[in-house]
Backbone:
């Protein structure tokens, strides 16, 4: 008598695949909540700090949004210098991260090699430890049983 897997392998029959059993990604629509509306009568009773602050929309854009910022010569140089400093800083940071990652990978390889080297020794130690523990348990149970036999003899007599 052969197992189903063995028969399939011999006859090269693929494993049946049910399309409705395949995991499909869950598509969730974005929930849009309506804004919280507090009745005016309830708002009147609230302290100022708890009242909802809803700024009204402006019909005309403000002066700050309309004005154009034009940098003078000195300001341009300072802005450009700050950009260069930030760029250098970001590059140095990325180099540091790459070096740290490389060091970590190197450390992991060293650690793995060490673990592979001592794995047989550790497994032997573990086996010996558990063998000793099992022998000790057997010895203790044997002692308890012999005590119980002695007590039974005394009680029976």
Residues:
């Amino acid at each position: 008598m052969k197992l189903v897997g063995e028969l399939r392998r011999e006859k090269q029959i693929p494993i049946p695949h049910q399309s409705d059993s395949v995991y499909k990604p869950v598509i969730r629509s974005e929930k849009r909540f309506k804004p919280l509306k507090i009745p005016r009568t309830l708002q009147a009773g609230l302290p100022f700090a708890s009242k909802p602050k809803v700024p009204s929309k402006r019909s005309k854009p403000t002066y700050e949004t309309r004005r154009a910022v034009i940098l003078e010569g000195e300001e341009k140089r300072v802005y450009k210098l700050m950009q260069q400093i930030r760029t250098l800083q970001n590059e140095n940071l990325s180099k540091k991260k790459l070096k740290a990652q490389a060091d970590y990978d190197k450390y992991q390889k060293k650690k793995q090699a060490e673990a592979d080297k001592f794995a047989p020794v550790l497994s032997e130690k573990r086996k010996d430890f558990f063998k000793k523990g099992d022998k000790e348990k057997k010895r203790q149970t044997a002692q308890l049983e012999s005590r119980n036999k002695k007590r039974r003899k005394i009680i029976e007599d």
Summary: Residues 148 and 154 are 10 Å apart (CA to CA). The mean pLDDT is 88. The first helix runs from residue 4 to 11. The two ends are 60 Å apart (CA to CA).
